[in-house]
Every structure is written in structure tokens, then in C-alpha cells.
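Entry:
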Amino acid sequence: MEVEIVAGLTGLAGLAIGLATGLAVRVSERAQQATAPAAPQSGLPPGVASVLSVLRSSAVVVDGEDRVLRASSAARAFGLVSGDRLVIDELLAMARLARRDGEIRETEVQVGSSKGRNRAEGRWFAVRVAPLGSHGLVLVLAEDLTEMRRVEAIRRDFVANVSHELKTPVGALSLLAETVENAADDPEAVRRFAGRMQHESVRLTNLVQDLMTLSRIQGDEPLPELHAVALDEVIIEALDRCQIKANAKNIDLTTGGQDGLKVRGDEELLVTAIRNLIDNAVAYSPENTRVVVATRQCDDLHVEINVTDQGIGIPDVDLERIFERFYRVDPARSRQTGGTGLGLAIVKHVTTKHGGEVTVWSKEGSGSTFTIRLPLLNASPRPPAATERANEAAADQPRPPDGDASIVYPTPPTP
């Protein structure tokens, strides 16, 4: 009897141990499933996130259900991704094709433009789409091409404008030379056409010179060999170069303001910038008027050079574009005056190179005032007498009344 009892107890104990072991195994399996890492199709493979974080391109990873698992801040800023979705249909279609056939695809897409807007307003991207592993993940890389496209467009426009501007004087010289040859027996006609040839050759020379100057200063490279430049000497030289044109229209060139101001820069470039402003003032002013060039120390760190005329003024719609290369408010009038369309662009770039800014105030029928603001050399507080003279000079210059058009072109100092 005791043997049977012991055997029964032993059997029950074995059964209990077996049940406990099975239960422990089941609990262990469930715990392992709960703590196991997510499957690749719902997360990034190891190391991928680290690689994406150092890429310069905008990077996006989408899973098998087209959900965005990871997107760089640039991709979101450029509007490629919103929430957990790719919002560019073309990119989404490419991602699905790459997932389906495993092939790498490349294209260029534009983001941010619409049918009713100028296509130049959008951003261009070079896109590369590739499968990532074998779990339906797809990598989308987008390189911003907007700046490169803008530079290419500027280069094309520049070449087209230069070709057009060169064609006019070159064609005129060719026709005039042929006319002179045919009029060899008429001394008066020869003299007249020779004068026209000289005029066109001067125009061609000025255009080539302006192109050379612009190519020198429009890059990011700083100007070499800057030195102390006296603004008094710069203004005197610029006025001297414009005196003949002013005399032809009986326009009085006048200077004023504060003497003895100096800046650090390239004297020849500064003379060119001031001369261009004076040339424009003379060209667009009626006869028997006055053009004033005045300097003043506007604060403890900067000096202003004002060129004021009593000319025809500039329409409001043109103020924002007058510093563009080859832009003319009145193309027909500009050709009559012999302008190249590069003068104000040179002024803007010269000012930028010297760490300053150029501003313009203008009102149709009341004239214009162009102001170049430059950092002073060894800037120091102004003495009271100099301050009083500068204020008197400034009071003589026209100021834009409320509501009149004015525009400022700030330019950061060149490092």
C-alpha cells in the first residue's frame, strides 16, 4: 500500500514538473518575441541611419507600404516629404518601380512650381532612386540643382545679351566702312561717315571695357592689393572723365559735402563706379541742369557718396531691375546716349566688393539720387565742425517724401 502511494506521488510530482517546464518554455518564447528587434521591413537595416546622416543630398527611405521611415531635414524643408509620405508623385512612382524590379533610376524633377507660375520659381533636383535590401525598402536621394540651373540661365542670358550688344556696333562699322568706300569721291560724306565710325568704335570699346571690368569684379574672390583711397581724389577724377559730356549739354557738375574722407579699396574701380553714376545722371538729364556729387560721414563707421541729378527719373516698376546687366528703362534712349547697359551693374558689384551697399531714390520728373555707402578707413567719431558741414550738405540733397519710390540693395562685406 505504501509503495503504491509513493509511486502515485512520484507520478504526480513528475506531471507537475512537466507542466511547469512546458509553461516556462512558453513564457520564455513569448518574452523573446516581445523583446526581439523589429523586422527589417518595418525599420532600417543596421548602419543605414548612420550612413544617411552624413550624406549631403536630401535622403528619404520608404518601406514596402510607401511610408517614410526616415527623411533628412533638407528633404522636409524642400517639400519632398510631408508627415510619413512622399508628396511628389513622380518620386513615389519611381520608388514603386525600383521596389518592383530592383533597378536604380535617375531623373530630374522640379518642386514648388505650378502651371500658372513661372517655372523658374521652383527648385530643381537630380533624383536617384534605388532599392535598399530585400525587404521592400527604397532609398531616394535628391541633389539640389537650383543654383546651378540659375547660373546656367544667367550665363545663357549674358551670352545672348553680349552677342546682341556687340552685333549692333560691329554691324554699323561694317556698313559705314562700305558706305565710305562707295563715297570716296565725296569728301563731305567721307568725313560724316568717318565720324559715325568713330562713334561706333568708341561704343564698342566701352562695351568691351565694361565687360572686362564686370568679369573682374562679379566673382567671389576678394579684391587684391587694397589700400587707402581718398574720396576727394576719386570724385575729382570721375568728374574730369565726365566733363566733356556734361559740357555738350551745358550741365553743371558740382561737388560738396565733407572733405578728407578715406576708404580702403581699389581706386580705379571706385572711380569707375562714380563715373558710371555721373555718366547716367548726365545722359538722362535735360540741358542746362545740374548734377551734384556730395560726400558725408553718415555715422562713426560709414561714408556716403551721393550723386543727384535733375533728370527724368525712374518709373517705380523699373527700380528693382535697374542694377541688372543690360537692363534699360528706355532701350531706345539708351542707344541714343551710347550706354552699354552695364554701368549700374558695375556700380553694384564694385560696392559689394568694398563691403558697402548702393541705394537709389527716384521720382519721375523730379530726378534721382544714387547713394554709395562704404566703410570708413580708420573710422572714428566725427568732430562737431565736420558733423555740421555734413548735415548742411545732406540738407541740400533731395530726400524722398513719404510714398515716393526708393529701393535699397544691401550687400554683405566680402570676407
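The first helix runs from residue 2 to 35.
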